[in-house]
Amino acid sequence: xxxxxxxxxxxxxxxxxxxxxQWPGQANALQVKEVLLHKKTKYQDLLVFAxxxxxxxxxxxxxxxxxxxxxxxxxxxxxxxPMFSCDPKQGLIIGGGDGGVLREVVKHSxxxxxxxxxIDGDVVEAAKRFLPSVAKAVGDPKVExxxxxxxxxxxxxxxxxxxxxIVDSSDPVGPAEKLFSKAFYVNAERILKxxxxxxxxxxxxxxxxxxxxxxxxxxxxxxxxxxxxxxxxPTYPSGQIGAFMARKSGGKGEISCRWPRREPQExxxxxxxxxxxxxxxxLPAFLQRRLExxxxxxxxxxxx
Length: 304
Description:
Elements: E1 11-12, E2 15-19, E3 27-40, E4 45-51, E5 56-60, E6 63-67, H1 71-83, E7 90-95, H2 100-105, E8 113-118, H3 121-130, E9 143-147, H4 150-156, E10 162-168, H5 182-191, E11 192-201, H6 209-219, E12 225-232, E13 240-247, H7 274-279, H8 285-302
Parallel strand pairs: 7-8, 7-10, 8-9, 10-11
Antiparallel strand pairs: 1-2, 2-3, 3-4, 4-5, 5-6, 11-13, 12-13
Helix pairs in contact: 6-8
Keywords: Polyamine biosynthesis, Transferase
GO molecular function, one term: spermidine synthase activity
Domain PABS: 13-248
């Protein structure tokens, strides 16, 4: 039986059980065919298993990060929502150790270089070994992989370096906690080029309404706009995850990221379309009302 760092069982009677205090009263379960890897890295508990119906699965600290069956919905939307919102040449990816977001970013012919900063090299190696179709771009010549702290990297980067920053983080506990802070986004705004876009894993609207409001109002305070887009991922809690997006002032064209500026051309995609891009910003009434009020406060703060 595989057990995470806290000693609670992960696999019971042939089923992986995702029980977590971050989503009380509910749990997700996948049937396990074979445990492929289980180890304690420098930063977290890493489990990889072959499931009966969802392909290979990576789990960090007891939480599902990726399954081969539905990974394209998260990877494509988190990457292409910002990438199609501008004309990026220089990109920065923080996190995303499985390499899926990287795979999508390098599909854009306009990209000249991608700096990829992942804190846990063991996750990268596990993805290369057990999810090669996801990690296929790890050795791409456009990519510079830096195994280290993405927050520290942002703090030490020069101003106006990147057209796009994508933060593919786990939940705001453990190694990813510092990525959910106003200080990180102040640095992100500083190192973005004028009109540049940041897109971050934005948590679940059913479970994290308060955090989403904080992200839009506080984290987005120094940006020209701050928005939330919804993504369907069946194996994530409540079947949904968000993308927090913000644009630095000074660019040309529409400030909002709600509509793509370019169209996919001969790009191999299984989930993202221009229609899905626009639809992702259509939110349930309860969250839309809250974010409209939040954004009003954010705009007043940004205007001085």
